[in-house]
């Protein structure tokens, strides 16, 4: 059984190959799975996708016609997959149910600290032997308020770190976390969280109800000197509204590891090309905005766990089982005699 893996990063490839060695063959491609590349999966029963692949109805149709029967997504998010179409076509779909929450939570804090203390600007100056401190003043986190939107495993890990800094904790989620409550977190509505927080960090999946959760109205409620961090999904923030907010001189800083239109841009070298995304180009011009390329999950520990979970999902499918990562189970076997 050969598995075709799309969107494989250079550092990820040896981990994938080692995990599948002795079990299944795996062919790793660095190209994304989309309408232009779907035909390359012809003859492959199982494909493995990443979160920036585009598995819309048309792509899934091409995969199914080419013989694909199972999609193993190497991510927890799956908003890039048309699950209804997968069901219609009889395609099994599985994702990674969970992996190290510390990878994303710690990176979110890396962004928060770097934005607050102007680390990138400071390093740029010192590389030019400019050692002045003008414009580099930050704030203590101790005693200030952290607003955690989404208190699942990653949000809870983020809150533990905030508690270690001695911060007041506000949370917003449909389900409360006993651990966050034990840390002293107060659960409040979104409006109050945005209004009272010095730091707002997003830890939610991208769903229809969370799309543009941070819109113009939410941004208007935030303090002028607040810092906003997003290491979850780009679509949680209305990027055009964020640009307008920053243009008016509001918000002390923003750290973005994700962007709504990142597909086809993040993970690629676009340095010799004209940036045609005007919103992203504008965001990059603000000195108080730090953008990274969807790397919060990218630790040795997390990548190994993601790949190991992907292998389990493949094994479950081949054994006729469903697991905690199954999104669309295999279609029922036909009745005897049919």
TrEMBL record:
Keywords: NAD, Oxidoreductase. Transmembrane segments: none annotated. Its EC number is 1.1.1.28. InterPro entries: D-isomer_2_OHA_DH_cat_dom, D-isomer_DH_CS, D-isomer_DH_CS1, D-isomer_DH_NAD-bd, D-LDH-like, NAD(P)-bd_dom_sf. It comes from the Bacteria. Residues 13-322 form the D-isomer specific 2-hydroxyacid dehydrogenase catalytic domain. GO terms for molecular function: D-lactate dehydrogenase (NAD+) activity; NAD binding. It is an enzyme of class 1 (oxidoreductase). Residues 110-296 form the D-isomer specific 2-hydroxyacid dehydrogenase NAD-binding domain. Belongs to the D-isomer specific 2-hydroxyacid dehydrogenase family. This is D-lactate dehydrogenase.
């Amino acid at each position: 059984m050969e598995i075709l893996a799309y969107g494989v990063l250079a550092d990820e490839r040896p981990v994938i190959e080692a995990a599948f060695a002795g079990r299944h063959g795996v062919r790793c491609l660095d190209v994304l799975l989309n309408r232009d590349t779907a035909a390359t999966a012809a003859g492959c029963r199982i494909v493995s996708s990443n979160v920036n692949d585009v598995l819309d109805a048309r792509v899934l149709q091409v995969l199914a016609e080419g013989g694909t029967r199972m999609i193993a997504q190497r991510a927890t998010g799956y908003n890039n997959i048309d699950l209804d179409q997968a069901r219609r076509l009889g395609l099994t779909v599985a994702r990674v149910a969970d992996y190290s929450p510390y990878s994303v939570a710690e990176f979110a804090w890396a962004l928060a600290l770097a934005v607050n203390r102007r680390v990138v600007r400071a390093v740029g100056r010192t590389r030019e032997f400019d050692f002045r401190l003008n414009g580099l003043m930050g704030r203590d986190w101790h005693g200030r308020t952290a607003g955690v939107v989404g208190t699942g495993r990653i949000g809870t890990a983020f809150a533990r770190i905030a508690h270690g800094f001695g911060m007041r904790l506000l949370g917003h989620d449909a389900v409360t976390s006993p651990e966050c409550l034990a840390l002293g977190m107060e659960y409040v509505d979104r409006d109050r969280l945005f209004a009272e927080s010095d730091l707002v960090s997003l830890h939610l999946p991208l769903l229809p109800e969370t799309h543009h959760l941070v819109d113009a109205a939410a941004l208007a409620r935030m303090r002028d000197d607040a810092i906003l961090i997003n290491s979850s999904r780009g679509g949680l923030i209305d990027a055009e509204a964020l640009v307008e907010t920053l243009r008016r001189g509001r918000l002390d800083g923003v750290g973005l590891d994700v962007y709504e239109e990142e597909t086809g841009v993040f993970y690629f070298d676009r340095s010799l090309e004209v940036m045609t995304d005007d919103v992203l180009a504008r965001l990059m011009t603000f000195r108080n905005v730090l953008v990274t390329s969807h790397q919060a999950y990218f630790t040795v520990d997390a990548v190994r766990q993601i790949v190991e979970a992907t292998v389990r999902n493949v094994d479950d499918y081949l054994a006729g089982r469903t697991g905690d990562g199954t999104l669309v189970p295999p279609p029922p076997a036909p009745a005897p005699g049919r």
